[in-house]
């Protein structure tokens, strides 16, 4: 199994996609953190309440931890999806299955390898969020807030959440083998469908269901400033994410494990 | 170096893709120590059979085993079987070296094997270039290098000569023979007999998913070889040859003998003479004062035998019992195959 994991790491590192996605994650995260810090505590207008100011721990966690997750998780998701679908797209699945005819072990090795690279993505995003966030907070004249309540645990959990989204990507890619379709589905669900479902569930007084959606379960790990959703406990959020990844990959394996490679 | 191969056995193998029967109750075996050609026109089911052998395609019925075990149950897959399949299974953005290293790491092989195999197939200088820029011939070599990584006892190659230049084909021929002489099992598929006929000892011939023939290549060679002659005065040549037929002593190389016949005209306007060598025919023409424009020994008749055996794939000749609905694409590639065979012949002359 360690041999297969090393093989998967070599697959990731030997093409250029991984660092392109990493660069994108860092840029997007920096922007995300800058905007979060820039607008924290400012009334959006039209009589709506302001988000918590930069002197609250919630706002600091939003800038340093939640922004890192929010900027990086889609890139981690795409890394995970392509980790599976590129094998079919370029037919490298043939040598892969020749090396390891037991196919479920290949998926397992991919999960372990991508979890590792996902941690790297999370750490890089965290660096970007802290760098940009601290500059903006400093410019606005606030304390940088590194001593804020639960900040450090939120930062660690943000890294964990980013890494878990690569697993969800592997799950999606195992289930949907077409790369374009898999990425579209992944992005549509997380960017469009999930927020809509959250709003709809809230309107129906079903927040208890909405907090189990993957993005909300992820946010539970970072405890950002939010007036909208009542999050799960952090550990429950993490378990929910692992659950999504395992269920998707399991379904994918069931659907595809014996499928012919032609 | 001795490396004993395992027998490859296919028994009652059937594979349906939807309602299409790609392989139909196929049974054959391939023995170690020889190169075996796996022959048939495009669409005959060769690739599907090989993919069943390699555990990539699940048979509808029957078994395909290597040394008595299905591929999925092998303890050391790459050390047992090395395979290069027709599809170009490479990530275009990955270098040749990285492609092999991925496999070496996954199979737990000696890390030095990747570079050693690149050297063996002559790709060392381009090892760090992205495969996307490789020619078809270079990809074939890389596929071969991948197949050899585990020093396998059984080698399964799908159309390995595709895209190779004549020098590459000559190199491949020697290489495969050496591997077989070391005791390994070597199975090479091709839809062009002339590509492999100088390489293989045994053949398994397939058409429409069914076994047409299994045996020694020599057994396919039915008719005697002839001599092809072109002359502006064919009638005179025929007279001269007719006079020579019979038990009379003649020129260099001994007697043409009573078996000399010259009854056939080829499409190119040549006269086909059997029962005599080119030397003898040339001498007869010289003595008879017949002007010759071409005098050549006929190539082996195998290609024709092969086509006759498998031609029902291309539809009925006389509208009789043959299957209906010939795939136009298949006919197109048959023409392509014939053209390529022609090139091969020209290159080897």
What is the rounded Rg of chain A? Answer: 19 Å
Helix content of chain A: over 70%
Side by side, the strands of the main sheet of chain B go 5-6-7-3-8-9
Poorly predicted sequence stretches spanning 5 or more consecutive residues of chain B: 248-254, 313-349
Strand content of chain A: under 5%
* Number of E-type strands of chain B: 13
Tally of contiguous helical segments of chain B: 12
The chain-level structural class of chain B is alpha/beta
Strand content of chain B: 15-25%
Q: Please report the number of helical segments of chain A.
A: 10
SSE arrangement of chain A, N to C? HHHHHHHHHH
Main sheet overview of chain A: none
User: What is the makeup of the main sheet of chain B?
Assistant: 6 strands, mixed
Structural classification of chain A: mainly alpha
Q: First CA to last CA of chain A: what distance? A: 25 Å
Tertiary shape of chain B: elongated
Verbal overview:
- The complex is a heterodimer of chains A (262) and B (349).
- Chain A has 262 residues and is mainly α.
- Helices cover 76% and strands 0% of the residues of chain A.
- Helix content of chain B is 35%, strand content 22%.
- Chain B has helices at residues 46-53, 77-80, 96-107, 112-120, 136-148, 166-181, 193-196, 217-220, 234-244, 278-288, 302-310, 328-348; strands spanning 8-17, 20-30, 35-39, 61-66, 81-84, 154-158, 185-190, 202-207, 210-216, 226-230, 261-265, 271-274, 294-297.
- A 6-stranded mixed beta sheet of chain B has the order 5-6-7-3-8-9, sandwiched between helices.
- In chain B, strand 1 and strand 2 form a beta hairpin.
- The relative contact order of chain B is 0.14.
- Mean pLDDT of chain B is 82; it is low at 248-254 and 313-349.
- Chain A binds chain B through residues 3-4, 6-7, 10-11, 14-17, 86, 90-102, 258, 260-262, and chain B through 48, 51, 54-58, 71-72, 74, 77-78, 81, 83, 85, 87-95, 98-99, 101-103, 105-108, 146.
